[in-house]
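4.2 Preliminary Data

To establish feasibility before requesting continued support, the project team ran the inverse folding procedure on a target of 239 residues. The structure was first converted into the token representation described in Section 3, and no sequence information of any kind was made available to the design step. The complete token record follows.
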């Protein structure tokens, strides 16, 4: 998988993603990250990439030319046109199932806007998907692109090590995660639940499943509508 990020702030994206688990995966060539500075495609002697909005109003709008030339440069040697995802609060809200779908692509381009947005004509020309990370407005598309790349990349085989993947499995069914504990056994007079010290794998798995169900019921009951539930899960929820 190769992720391409079109941005005016390459250092922000690079710093965020070349760190920790995603950074290790990039170093190990498990996926590629190609960050391209849209400003490098400005034909202006001052490297401007934005201008005043036609019709007036606050802020600046990113011009279509540099965005289009940047895109053309990224796709020039590709046989097939990749999906181009524009980060915008007007898009469909990103989710785990969208992450799963996108993790099957060979190449993905993320287009990050700034200021008041990007000239509509170039969006019409190149964008295939518009996605949002939630109903709030950020100063630019870089954080949303990083959020999406992080969650898509952890679904690529080899990005998580075996210890991490076990954790991933338990998320797969659409329930919230059970609580976790580590040493010490007692902290501020609170003991770790005894079952976790018992060494009984069957009882531990049962306890964790119940905790996941309880948490989901209390905190995000709407998730139970789409979660994968067994008959024994349904009995627990009836209690
Ligand atoms: N750009 C600004 N706000 C955004 C959001 N919430 N999601 C995606 N892109 C954005």
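Position-by-position output of the design step:
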């Amino acid at each position: 998988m190769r992720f391409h990020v079109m941005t005016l702030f390459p250092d922000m994206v690079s710093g965020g993603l070349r760190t920790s688990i995603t950074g290790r995966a990039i170093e190990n060539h498990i996926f590629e990250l190609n960050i391209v500075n849209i400003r490098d495609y400005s034909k202006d002697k001052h490297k401007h990439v934005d201008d005043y909005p036609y019709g007036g109003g606050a802020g600046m709008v990113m011009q279509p030319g540099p965005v289009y030339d940047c895109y053309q440069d990224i796709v020039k040697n590709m046989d097939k046109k990749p999906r181009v995802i524009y980060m915008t609060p007007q898009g469909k809200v990103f989710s785990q199932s969208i992450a799963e779908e996108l993790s099957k692509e060979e190449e993905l381009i993320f287009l990050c806007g700034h200021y008041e947005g990007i000239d509509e004509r170039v969006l019409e020309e190149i964008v295939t998907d518009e996605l949002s990370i939630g109903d709030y407005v950020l100063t630019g598309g870089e954080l949303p692109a990083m959020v999406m790349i992080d969650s898509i990349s952890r679904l690529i085989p080899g990005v998580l090590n075996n210890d991490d993947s076990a954790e991933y499995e338990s998320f797969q069914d659409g329930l919230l995660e059970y609580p976790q504990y580590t040493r010490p056994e007692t902290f501020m007079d609170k003991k770790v639940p005894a079952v976790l010290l018992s060494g009984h794998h069957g009882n531990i798995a049962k306890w964790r499943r119940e905790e996941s169900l309880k948490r989901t019921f209390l905190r995000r009951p709407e998730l139970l509508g789409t979660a994968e539930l067994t008959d024994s899960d349904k009995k627990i929820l009836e209690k």
